[in-house]
Amino acid sequence: MEILAGGVVLALLVLGLGMLVRRLLRRLAVLLRGLLTVPARPTGYQLRGLRLAHSRALVRSEQRRAEALAAEVMRLRVELRMAKQAPAEPRFQRAKREFARRFHPDRLPPRSPDRSIRIAIFREYWAVLRGIERSR
């Protein structure tokens, strides 16, 4: 019995050693292949002109987009300054707040039969109120 167990251990040891040697030989082969091959010339050199033209076109389009965004930021800054200077009319603010308190759809029970109608009406009138508020 001890001889059989010793033989099994010896066989497993030889198997593990063989697997380790195989793994080392594969890595060595990959390393040697990498050292012996001559690197090919990248295809980027052949397409340099095309890529450069594409890059320039992309830069121009992004520049136009950035200019448009900068103009939008400037416009919004002016609007913000004007809104801060013009105090909101307290009666309009009170009316808007009262409208939201009484008619906002979130104040209804979830299964209310007229919920969808109230949502549509509230959205429509709320957009009108916001337009009035912005036009001041």
TrEMBL record:
The keyword Membrane applies. Residues 59-86 form a coiled coil. The chain crosses the membrane at residues 6-25. Keywords: Coiled coil, Membrane, Transmembrane, Transmembrane helix. This is J domain-containing protein.
